What does this fold into?
Amino acid sequence: MAKIDFGGTLETVVTRDEFPLEKARKVLKDEVIAVIGYGVQGPAQSLNMRDNGFKVIIGQAPEIKKDWDKAVKDGWKPGKTLFPIEEAAEKGTMVQYLVSDAAQKLLWPRMRPCLKKGDALYFSHGFSIVYRKQTGVVAPKDIDVIMVAPKGSGTSVRRNFLDGSGINSSFAVFQDATGRAEERCLAIGIAIGSGYLFPTTFEQEVWSDLTGERGVLMGCLAGILEAQYNLLRKHGHSPSEAFNETVEELTQSLIRLVAENGMDWMYANCSTTAQRGALDWRHRFRAAVEPVFDELYERVKDGTETGIVLDANSRPDYAEKLRAELDEIKNSEMWRAGAAVRKLRPENWGKKKE
Ligand SMILES: NC(=O)c1ccc[n+]([C@@H]2O[C@H](COP(=O)([O-])OP(=O)(O)OC[C@H]3O[C@@H](n4cnc5c(N)ncnc54)[C@H](OP(=O)(O)O)[C@@H]3O)[C@@H](O)[C@H]2O)c1
It folds into this structure.
């Protein structure tokens, strides 16, 4: 494993140099990897592994027709590489449990009897295991329990694989029954196309992930964008001006500079007027949100947030409810203005006229 200095703290990571694809193929040469669930992570991870030359089968409920049909369209063959959930889980020696976190709870009574001594049960999130009092997911003692959690949507896991890059993933072993849990875990992490792998525990992964998506990555992001847009509108700015100053400049220019070379680089490439204001105001904003973040982390750790997820996403109409809430965002003035702004981008303007 490589030792890398992350801002003064020495951490261990596993790159493709230490764990090349050839080594992963050797470690997993006798394994049949059963991917359960063909939603977002399922297709991405299974297709990457198939393209990398691993033995992969899919377990998907045929009655969820859209996902079954998607699997068939992606080249999985019913009865050969595509099976109902239990059949695939029984055939697999490594079982990737990639249905939604709420579905992992619902399906567990059907999954558990399919797991055989020496199998590996694989997660991409610490959710079900860490909150096992809420989910009931308690693995048998004679199997390995491992996790590789890609730090990105399944869509990016596949896209980045196809363009030759990769998504960074964390990895952890919760239970080592075979003595081979770590090498199986690392091998499957490389097999799914991870850029590099960094160690974590199931607890650290789920606490940081639930905080991140509720916080800066998604919840906080949407909230602060809305707050600024609404402020500008309240003071008489037009929708196009408010959207451009809030979202378009961020996504089309500034955040790309942050990704390229860090926050100071983005600041340094803006006017000295912008830099002066940003350097002063970042402290005000940090102080304002710190108490909210404290509350968020507490609610993640004490199971309040996972309780809400399990309750809401276990209902039969959960997908329609989520869609209705997403539509509310889509149909708001701000994001309708955004659709108009996107259409005006030079690359889209050309397309529109064709
Ligand atoms: N998305 C990410 O960024 C990300 C990143 C890393 C790890 N993960 C983890 O990866 C795992 C899978 O998540 P995901 O992103 O692929 O998407 P997901 O939408 O949370 O779940 C995937 C699939 O679960 C299916 N499902 C839901 N209820 C079901 C039920 N009762 N029976 C059978 N299947 C059911 C869904 O089908 P329907 O749509 O038909 O309900 C969907 O196809 C989760 O543990 C997640 O936390 C996700």
Q: What stands out?
A: The chain has a mean pLDDT of 96. The two ends are 52 Å apart (CA to CA). The pocket of NAP is lined by residues 37, 39-42, 61, 64, 67, 98-101, 103, 106-107, 124-125, 127, 149-150, 153-154, 319 (CB under 6 Å).
